[in-house]
C-alpha cells in the first residue's frame, strides 16, 4: 500500500452526518473509472465493491499488480462493457485503498486514526459515494450494481436516491444481515482483536500489524465464500506436495495450504482495522428495520428497474434472502427481474467466470440501455 | 400460436398492468409490448427461459405459480394471463383462485382435450392422443390435468367465476363460443381462450 498517494481521489468537502451521530467533512474518496462518459451523460454505472474489494474493478490493480476484482465482468466487450458504459468504482469509506478510513492520518497526532475512526454503516458508505455524481456532473446513473456488500449498497442507494439510477443490480446479497452472517464476521473480528499486535487498533508500524489475526479472519471468511461441493471437487482430501500424512500440524492437505496462502496474501493488501469497520457496517445493515419492518417501504418511490441475481450454492447470502427483496418489490409493483443461477462456486460465483451469470447481465444491460434510450424514459 | 396472442392482445386495454404467468421465452410479453402500451411482468419456472427473458430486458422473475403468486398483492394487475399452462399444475384450482385474487381480469387459454382429433385418437387407436398442441407421450407429459373447453366452462360456472368472453381457435379461425354453440365448439376448437373475473 505504498503508492496510495498517487490514486485518483476526490476530496468531499460537504459535511456528511454519519449514522453514529458524528460528522465528517473534507475527507478523501478514492475512485477509479473505466470507459468514457458520453455526451448525454446517460451511460454511467456506479459499481459498489464487496467487503475486501476496492476501486480497481478492472484492469491491473497498481497496488497488488493483480487483475481487478471484477475483471470477468468489467472491461471492453464484457458485461459491464467499457466500450459502451462509463464505469465508476470507489473505495468505500472505512476502506484501506485511499478513501477515508481507520488508516487515514489523524492531523492532531500525525498517526493513523485506528479505532478513533467513527463506526460507519452501509448507509454512510452510499451517502459518501453519492458525491461522485456531483463530481462527474451526472444527473442520473444508468445503473448501480454490486455483489455481496456491494449489493447491499445498491439497495441502500436506490432507497436513499430513488430517482438517481435507472437500473439496479443487487447480486448475491441480503436486505438484512442474518445471525449467521454476523456470527462469521464476529469470528473474523475476534481473530484480529485477539492478535497481540492489534493493540486496541492503534498499531501503526508495518512490522507489528496484526497480520496473524487478519489472516485467520480471511481464512474463515474464505470458507464461507465457497460451497461444500466446490471445495470437495477442487481439493477433496488431496495432499499437499507429499505422498502421505506427516502426523503433524503442517499443512498436509491441499485445502489447508490453500487457505493459508489466501490468508497470507490478504494481509499484504488489507488493513485489519478496515476489516473490523467494514464487517461491522455489514452487520449493522438492516434495510427492513430502517423502514419499520416493511422492506417494501424502502423502495416506495422508485421507478428503478431491478434485476436481482442469486446463486444456487451460495449459503452465505442464499436465494431465499435475495427472493425476500424480490417479494418486497413485487408487493409495491416495482419493475423487477430475478433469476437464480445454477453453479457450485458458492457465494464467490459473482466474482468468477460463471458464463450463465455473465452473459445474462451483459444481454440485460445492453437491451435495457437501448430500450430506455428508444423510449426516452 | 400467433392467433392466440392476437386474441389476448385484443382483450387487453391500453396502459394496463399485465402479469404473464408461465411466460416461457417471453414471446407473448414481447408481442404485447410491441402492440400495446402496457406495463408487463412475467413469472416463469424454467431457469433457461427466465435467462432468455432477462436477456431481452423483460421484467421476469424465476418462480413457480403454485408457490410464488402469493407475493403479489390483491388486484395488483389489470390482467393476469395464463397461456396453455393450467394443465401442468399440481393444483389448478388453487392457481385459478390466486390468479383471480391478483388480477382484476384473468385470461386463461387451454388446449382443448375435447377436440375431435383427440377424441378420435382415443376412440380408434385406443392410445393417449399425441397432437400438435399436445405433443407429449403419456409417460413424459408435463400436462397433469387436461380438460376440455366444456370442463373449464363448467368449472367456472360451478365456482361463480364470471366468464366475460370465450374464444375458440381452430387453426387460423377465430370464433366466439356462446352457451348455444358450446358443445359444437368443444368439438372443433384446438384452443379455448377465456376472459374471466371473480
Summarize the helices and strands and which ones pair or pack.
The complex is a heterodimer of chains A (377) and B (198).
Chain A: E1 9-12, E2 16-17, E3 23-24, E4 27-34, E5 44-47, E6 74-75, E7 80-81, E8 86-90, E9 105-106, E10 111-112, H1 122-135, E11 141-147, H2 149-160, E12 165-171, H3 179-193, H4 211-225, H5 228-234, H6 254-269, H7 272-284, H8 287-290, E13 305-311, H9 319-331, E14 335-341, H10 355-375
Parallel strand pairs in A: 5-8, 5-11, 6-7, 11-12, 12-13, 13-14
Antiparallel strand pairs in A: 1-4, 2-3, 4-8, 9-10
Chain B: H1 2-11, E1 17-21, H2 27-35, E2 39-44, H3 47-55, E3 59-62, H4 65-68, E4 77-83, H5 92-102, E5 103-111, H6 116-125, H7 149-158, E6 162-170, E7 173-176, H8 182-188, E8 191-197
Parallel strand pairs in B: 1-2, 1-4, 2-3, 4-5
Antiparallel strand pairs in B: 5-8, 6-7, 6-8
Model description:
The complex is a heterodimer of chains A (377) and B (198). In chain A, 34% of the residues lie in helices and 16% in strands. By secondary structure, chain A is α/β, with parallel strands linked by helices. In chain A, helix 1 (122-135) packs across helix 2 (149-160), helix 3 packs antiparallel against helix 4 and helix 3 runs antiparallel to helix 7. With 198 residues, chain B is α/β, with parallel strands linked by helices. Chain B has a single domain (2-197), classed as 3-Layer(aba) Sandwich (Rossmann fold), CATH 3.40.50.150. Chain B has helices at residues 2-11, 27-35, 47-55, 65-68, 92-102, 116-125, 149-158, 182-188; strands at residues 17-21, 39-44, 59-62, 77-83, 103-111, 162-170, 173-176, 191-197. In chain B, strands 3-2-1-4-5-8-6-7 form an 8-stranded mixed beta sheet, sandwiched between helices.
Structural class of chain B: alpha/beta
Task: Quickly count the helices of chain A.
Answer: 10
Q: Describe the largest sheet of chain A.
A: 8 strands, mixed
What is the tally of beta strands of chain B?
8
CATH class of the largest domain in chain A: Alpha Beta
> What is the tally of helical segments of chain B?
8
Helix residue percentage of chain A: 25-40%
The second-level CATH architecture of chain B is 3-Layer(aba) Sandwich
Largest interface, Cβ cutoff 8 Å: A-B, 23 and 21 residues
Which runs of chain B of at least 5 residues are low in confidence (pLDDT < 50)? none
Which assembly state applies to the chains in this document? heterodimer
Amino acid at each position: 500500500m505504498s503508492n496510495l498517494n498517487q490514486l485518483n481521489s476526490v476530496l468531499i468537502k460537504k459535511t456528511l452526518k454519519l449514522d453514529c451521530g458524528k460528522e465528517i467533512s473534507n475527507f478523501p474518496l478514492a475512485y477509479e473509472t473505466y470507459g468514457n462518459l458520453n455526451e448525454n451523460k446517460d451511460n454511467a454505472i456506479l459499481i459498489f465493491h464487496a467487503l475486501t474489494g476496492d476501486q480497481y474493478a478492472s484492469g491491473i490493480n497498481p497496488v497488488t499488480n493483480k487483475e481487478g476484482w471484477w475483471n470477468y465482468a468489467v472491461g471492453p466487450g464484457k458485461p459491464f462493457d467499457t466500450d459502451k458504459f462509463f464505469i465508476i468504482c470507489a473505495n468505500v469509506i472505512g476502506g484501506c485503498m485511499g478513501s477515508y478510513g481507520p488508516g487515514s492520518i489523524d492531523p492532531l497526532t500525525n498517526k493513523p486514526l485506528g479505532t478513533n475512526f467513527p463506526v460507519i454503516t452501509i448507509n454512510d458508505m452510499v451517502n459518501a459515494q453519492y458525491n461522485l455524481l456531483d463530481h462527474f456532473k451526472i444527473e442520473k446513473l444508468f445503473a448501480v450494481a454490486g455483489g455481496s456488500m456491494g449489493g447491499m449498497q445498491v439497495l441502500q442507494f436506490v432507497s436513499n436516491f430513488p430517482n438517481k439510477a435507472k437500473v439496479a443490480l443487487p447480486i448475491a446479497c441480503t436486505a438484512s444481515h442474518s445471525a449467521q452472517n454476523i456470527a462469521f464476521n464476529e469470528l473474523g473480528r475476534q481473530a484480529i482483536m485477539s492478535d497481540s499486535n492489534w493493540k486496541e487498533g492503534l498499531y501503526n508500524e508495518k512490522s507489528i500489524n496484526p497480520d496473524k489475526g487478519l489472516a485467520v479472519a480471511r481464512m474463515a471468511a474464505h470458507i464461507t465464500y465457497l460451497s461444500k461441493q466446490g471445495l470437495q471437487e477442487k481439493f477433496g482430501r488431496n495432499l499437499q506436495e507429499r505422498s502421505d500424512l506427516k502426523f503433524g500440524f503442517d499443512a498436509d492437505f491441499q485445502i489447508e495450504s490453500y487457505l493459508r496462502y489466501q490468508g497470507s496474501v490478504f494481509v499484504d493488501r488489507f488493513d485489519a482495522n478496515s476489516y473490523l469497520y467494514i464487517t461491522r457496517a455489514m452487520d449493522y445493515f438492516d434495510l427492513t428495520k430502517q423502514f419499520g419492518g416493511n422492506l417494501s417501504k424502502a423502495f416506495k418511490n422508485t421507478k428503478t428497474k431491478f434485476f436481482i441475481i442469486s446463486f444456487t450454492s451460495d449459503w452465505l447470502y442464499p436465494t431465499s434472502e435475495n427472493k425476500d427483496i424480490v417479494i418486497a418489490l413485487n408487493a409495491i409493483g416495482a419493475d423487477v427481474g430475478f433469476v437464480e443461477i445454477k453453479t457450485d462456486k458458492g457465494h464467490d460465483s459473482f466474482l468468477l467466470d460463471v458464463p450463465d451469470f455473465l452473459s445474462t447481465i451483459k444481454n440485460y444491460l445492453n437491451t435495457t440501455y437501448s430500450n430506455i434510450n428508444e423510449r426516452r424514459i | 400460436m400467433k392467433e392466440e396472442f392476437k386474441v389476448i392482445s385484443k382483450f387487453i386495454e391500453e396502459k394496463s398492468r399485465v402479469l404473464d404467468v408461465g411466460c416461457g421465452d417471453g414471446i407473448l410479453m414481447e408481442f404485447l409490448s410491441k402492440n400495446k402500451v402496457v406495463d408487463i411482468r412475467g413469472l416463469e419456472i424454467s431457469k433457461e427461459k427466465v435467462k432468455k427473458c432477462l436477456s431481452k430486458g423483460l421484467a421476469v422473475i424465476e418462480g413457480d405459480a403454485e408457490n410464488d403468486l402469493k407475493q403479489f398483492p390483491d388486484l395488483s394487475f389489470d390482467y393476469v394471463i395464463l397461456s396453455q399452462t393450467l394443465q401442468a399444475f399440481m393444483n389448478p384450482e388453487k392457481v385459478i383462485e390466486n390468479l383471480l385474487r391478483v388480477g382484476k381480469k384473468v385470461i386463461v387459454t387451454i388446449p382443448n382435450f375435447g377436440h375431435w382429433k383427440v377424441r378420435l385418437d382415443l376412440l380408434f387407436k385406443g392410445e393417449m392422443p399425441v397432437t400438435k398442441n399436445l405433443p407429449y407421450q403419456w409417460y413424459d407429459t408435463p400436462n397433469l390435468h387436461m380438460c376440455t373447453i366444456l370442463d373449464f366452462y363448467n368449472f367456472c360456472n360451478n365456482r361463480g367465476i364470471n366468464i366475460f368472453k370465450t374464444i375458440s381457435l381452430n387453426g387460423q379461425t377465430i370464433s366466439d363460443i356462446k352457451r348455444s354453440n358450446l358443445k359444437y365448439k368443444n368439438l372443433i376448437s384446438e384452443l379455448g381462450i377465456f376472459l374471466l373475473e371473480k
